[in-house]
Amino acid sequence: xxxxxxxxxxxxxxxxxxxxxxxxxxxxxxxxxxxxxIIPAGTGGGADQMARMIQGVIQKxxxxxxxxxxxxxxxxxxxxxxMDVKGSAGNEHKIIITLSNLFTTPLATGVPFSWEDLxxxxxxxxxxFVLWVNSSSPYQSAKDYVDAVKAGADSQFKxxxxxxxxxxxxxxxxxxxxxxxxxxxxxxxxxxxxxxxxVGGHIDSTVNNPIEAVSxxxxxxxxxxxxxxxxxxxxxxxxxxxDIPTCxxxxxxxxxxxxxxxxxxxxxxxxxxxxxxxxxxxVRETQEWKDFMAKGAFTQTFLSGDEYKKWVADAAVVHxxxxxxxxxxxxx
Amino acid sequence: MFMEREQNLVxxxxxGDGEKTxxxxxxxxxxxxxxxxxxxxxxxxxxxxxxxxxxVRVGAGWAFDGPQAGYFPFFxxxxxxxxSAVTFGINLFxxxxxxxxxxxxxxxxxxxxxLAPTVIYLIVMYYVGIYIAxxxxxxxxxxxxxxxxxxxxxxxxxxxxxxxxxxFEIAFLIPLPKGPLEAALGF
Amino acid sequence: xxxxxxxxxxxxxLADPMNIVYMCVGVVLGVLIGVLPGLGGANGVAILxxxxxxxxxxxxxIMLSSIYxxxxxxxxxxxxxxxxPGEPWSVATTFDGHPMAxxxxxxxxxxxxxxxxxxxxxxxxIVITFLAPxxxxxxxxxxxxxxxxxxxxxxxxxxxxxxxxxxKVLAAMTLxxxxxxxxxxxxxxxxxxxxxxxxxxxxxxxxxxVIGLFGIGEILLxxxxxxxxxxxxxxxxxxxxxxxxxxxxxxxxxxxxxxxVGCWLGITPGGATPASFMSYGLARRFSKDPGNFGxxxxxxVVAPETAAHAAxxxxxxxxxxxxxxxxxxAAVMLGGLLIWGLQPGxxxxxxxxxxxxxxxxxxxxxxxIGFLIVLTTVPLWASIxxxxxxxxxxxxxxxxxxxxxxxxxxxxxxxxxxxFGVIGYVFKKLHYPLAPLVLALVLGDMAESSFRQSMLxxxxxMSIFWSNWLVxxxxxxxxxxxFWPLIALMLDKLRGGGRFSPGGA
Lengths: 332, 187, 505
Known about the structure:
The complex is a heterotrimer. Chain A is of the alpha/beta class. Chain A has helices at about 1-20, 45-60, 80-85, 100-110, 140-150, 165-180, 190-200, 210-220, 270-285, 285-295, 305-325, and strands at about 35-40, 70, 95-100, 120-125, 130-135, 160, 185-190, 205, 220-225, 260-265. In chain A, strands 2-1-3-10-4 form a five-stranded mixed β-sheet, sandwiched between helices. In chain A, strands 7-6-8-5-9 form a five-stranded mixed β-sheet, with helices on both faces. By secondary structure, chain B is mainly α. Chain B folds into two domains: about 30-95; about 105-185, no CATH class. Helices cover about 60% and strands about 0% of the residues of chain B. Chain B has helices at about 35-60, 70-95, 105-130, 130-145, 150-170, 180-185; strands spanning about 60-65, 65. In chain B, helix 1 packs antiparallel against helix 2 (about 70-95) and helix 3 packs antiparallel against helix 4. Chain B starts with about 30 loop residues before the first helix and ends with a helix. Chain C has one domain (about 1-500). Helices cover about 70% and strands about 0% of the residues of chain C. Chain C has helices at about 1-15, 15-35, 40-50, 55-80, 90-100, 105-140, 145-160, 165-180, 205-225, 240-245, 250-265, 270-285, 300-315, 315-320, 330-340, 350, 355-375, 380-385, 390-410, 410-430, 435-460, 470-480, 485-500, and strands at about 185, 190. Chain C has a two-stranded antiparallel sheet. The longest helix of chain C has about 35 residues, at about 105-140. Chain C starts with a helix and ends in a 7-residue tail after the last helix. Chains in contact: A-B, A-C, B-C. Chains A and C meet through helix 2, strand 2, helix 3, strand 7 and helix 7 of A and helix 3, strand 1, helix 15 and helix 21 of C. Chain C: Keywords: Membrane, Transmembrane, Transmembrane helix. Chain C: This is Tricarboxylate transport membrane protein TctA. Chain C: It comes from Mesorhizobium escarrei. Chain B: Pfam families: TctB. Chain B: InterPro entries: DUF1468 (IPR009936).
């Protein structure tokens, strides 16, 4: 926190100094009016929480001179929000937080946009997915569970998840491919609902994000089997995240993580993008952000510029591949 | 069903209660209830047809694991179509159809006096934002319908958008549609 | 007595005068948010969430929940005065509240609404205080099939044949369902009835339809009769509040029934809006004089307001104990908990005693404060009706436009709202009922997805709706409600023949 403040002061000083010394033509770009922060999801979801948390951090530490407003545009699985940003070319005061629907929505609904229509700013974190079962179920490891799915009939096991043809269902399809059996996928509105259905014994498993199910785990209601990441979760919290094996370790070779990143309107100058990259770097330095990362067991990676672009491009290919295999591509 | 108005100035008439048709004076006649009934029922049938058409497109069957995306909307559309068709038929063929006036001319004029400026208000709002449009709208409304002088109307018309601006843009940070003036002021 | 001691401890947490200040600020803001149509509690809380960042979690949740209580109180105000529901859950309040205002009894309607809200909240907080662990377990029993059963029950208890042509009731209802289906289908992710437009992908929001159908429709109808609102209020004194209070205890059964419905739907979580509709429907069904409903029956204000506030309050329970939001507002507060560094869920009651019991204690206190604030402003609200129509009407229309816009930040929604206004006007004149339309619009989506989720789980087997005692009894109850007129007839016959004591509830 202290570091952030110092950094912020330093940056401001540099900016002011620069302005005074070299005149406006050399001045670093800064927002001239309220910045709109679009969330392509409804209020109360994971992306919404993160965006509002960022808004709060920026406000509290005065990381930006102009106010930031958060606007939910959730229509059509987020298509509305993406189309809005895509359509506002050259708007330097509009940024958007993305989740996997950046890739899945255009594929599943046929709405014409792709990540290439937007200007990538930076990656904030990667959200993890964990395979959960009810703690009263006999499955102690991911292998137990997948073996049971293999031994069972098609559609016998029920998986609940958030939304349809989105990240949760993609992971489900990946599990189906490993097991060679169909799972019944039941879509719900929010991650909390999904976790509750598992605790209540209405379904067999979920791939909830850590934060959605951690409390039930600590209360002894749910059991994590494995995490769909390349390496174990490093987050330091009250929960013992490090104890959860990766799915690969557990004998189920599936990896999937969800992008939490920032994009902005197309057609803005590099100077503007740099400003926002700097802004989010400052956000990441705050204690609140670090706590938030630990609580949610996020994988912390910060990418910007070409690295980020490459990551997104790779992820787009992966999604296209997974969605095609699953038959989720819109017909038209 | 729940907001039966007690004393409508317009002759009260219940459809299906054919005997109760009220004599109409030609002076205020616009359209008859019968015509309006037919138009509305017809439009609803059209909506129903669209609903059914699109439901068939997404699949209106019953898959092995439950209804498809268009299953419920299809039947909803079917019921809507059938119910409206009956209303349509009753009004078309029944001899007791309600031939009373849907709305008297003076009443229609009053309704139009609100509706027309409101439509214009929305069009203006699209171009200059909600605040300027609201100021103009309130001012116009007060002067035209309320016969207030500009000296009385202007303060209200200016104050209310200002209060709203402060409330939404500054206090709550909710951006509403804005136009060139606000942009010039740096919002 | 454990809960009782914890509660006392909670009040201790509240002793900080700053918390009381936050409470008052929150309630006032909440009433304002509730009054402005469209700007709902969820929005209000979301907007103020970042501001609470530098507060302690307890102070922050006290302020945010106070906003929520304020919004619950405030939603009734515009419903009664102008037939414009400030919040989704006050739609049912317009049915009798607005006719009361038209008869010059706005003060009575508002007093009844606020008092009922308060009593509903109080009963719900008592449930939360003493039964939290039990009811949390109850909420877990609700799977998709149970949800569908509840939605069916809401529908069946509300829909009855009125004086309108049954074909028009059916048409209005199905139109509501059809509008609810527009947009992204939540089960398959397919787009329905959007015809390639991005604008239609968000579907028709209940609130936008309601602001148009009720609010704008009402203004157009009013215009027919000249430039004035009906029912200018006479001077309002403390006497009229007292007079209303004297009448209220008669409705104790309604209070208890509505609060029970509210708590149930708040906890499971079904939401405050269905709760208010269900409770209104039940009150009418069990009334000795159902014909009075919709014409300014005070019980028609009492029932939905009690249920809505009870549901809104108890919706915080699943949020705290299970981490599932019982309402959109609770969903935003849930996000708040995470931001403040708290983890909602079963551990919260164990690890964060100060926070939880401070919050519960604040529910008692801030509802009392909220009640006093809104009650003292009754004369103020009622006197709005005395402002000349040509000043207040454009302001109302401006507020409706803002409300419609803020729901999704979309200009098209404002146009749609106006369109709904015209539909509302024409439908009313042709005696198409609006209530089934809005109920279908609010329930359509939820009911369809629960039904299809159930079908997925049971692999298309309908017997899932009678697969255990819980879902089975709710479904049976729903059917009983649907055929209530027949059942009542049979009960009547029985009573007539055998001289039984009165049947019914």
